[in-house]
Amino acid sequence: MTHDLLLRRKWTLRSHGRQVVFIKQKNESSAHVIMKALLWALYLPTYPDLAVEVAIGDRFKPDVVQLDAAQSPVFWGEAGQVSERKIGSLVRRFPHTHFALAKWATGLTPHAEIVQRVLAKRARSAPFELIAFPRDSAERFFRPDGEIHIDRAHLTILSLS
User: pTM surpassing 0.70?
Assistant: First the structure.
């Protein structure tokens, strides 16, 4: 991804034949927007109706989400910092929702310990994944024209249960 794109507030990005405009808020880091875009592109083949930054009638607004016909989340993606309390609230209320939590340029072990502690208290029927995006993710996965090419083979992903 070019330095010029990182300076913009609006990023028009494409993947798997779909296009989304990502808007970088004033208090939001470029890394957070990049993680949202990468989560969207990574899970789009499995969840073709993914939406970004859409309120779903919950007190929490997911970074990336797909709803079922009853407007319940079947996939919920979060990028960056998420408290243990929020994770607990989400997995308690949405036991059938696939969760993905993305982290930027960091090891996943301390985060996995927190999530495992929360998951140990809950019966779930859907995956909970932790993803580490490398520091050079923008350069590796974004093309100059805004196309995102990413797959699981190039990432560290922990599936927790």
Answer: yes
